[in-house]
Design brief:
By secondary structure, the protein is mainly α. Helices cover 46% and strands 8% of the residues. The chain contains 6 helices and 4 strands; from the N terminus they run ββααααααββ.
């Protein structure tokens, strides 16, 4: 699969399932945002979607997620409602991971049919 087509269709080769970024985003919007009001620039749904897409593509850390999003910014902006200029930094992804409930994300993740397991943190996802 070409990297340019990555966000239009993320193919999970192990399970031969496809996850559309828009449907993942719609489900992740339902996850409650436990971050404090001050300093929120990106919605929890968007951050969780970006983390999960990057994780599906092999990124393992918040820094890796930030780099992956920077590399695919054009495709992300076409596929997802991204209203701010620039992209989130690694600390933003780490903060989102620290303040969300993995059980809640896992419960909503089941609705998308994504074949991964979330442990204590979003950065501890197993295929």
């Amino acid at each position: 699969m070409e990297k340019n087509e990555l966000l239009s269709r993320v193919k999970l080769e192990q399970r031969d399932k496809e996850v559309k970024p828009q449907s993942l985003y719609e489900v992740m919007q339902k996850v409650s945002d436990k971050r404090k009001r001050r300093g929120k620039r990106y919605s929890a749904g968007l951050l969780l979607t970006l983390i999960l897409l990057a994780k599906m593509c092999g990124e393992r850390t918040a820094k890796g997620v930030a780099k992956w999003v920077r590399l695919h910014e054009k495709e992300i902006r076409e596929a997802l409602p991204f209203y701010r200029p620039g992209v989130p930094c690694a600390n933003t992804y780490q903060s989102m991971s620290d303040h969300c409930n993995p059980r809640e994300v896992r419960a909503y993740n089941i609705q998308t049919g994504s074949p991964f397991t979330i442990r204590k943190s979003l950065f501890e996802i197993e295929w």
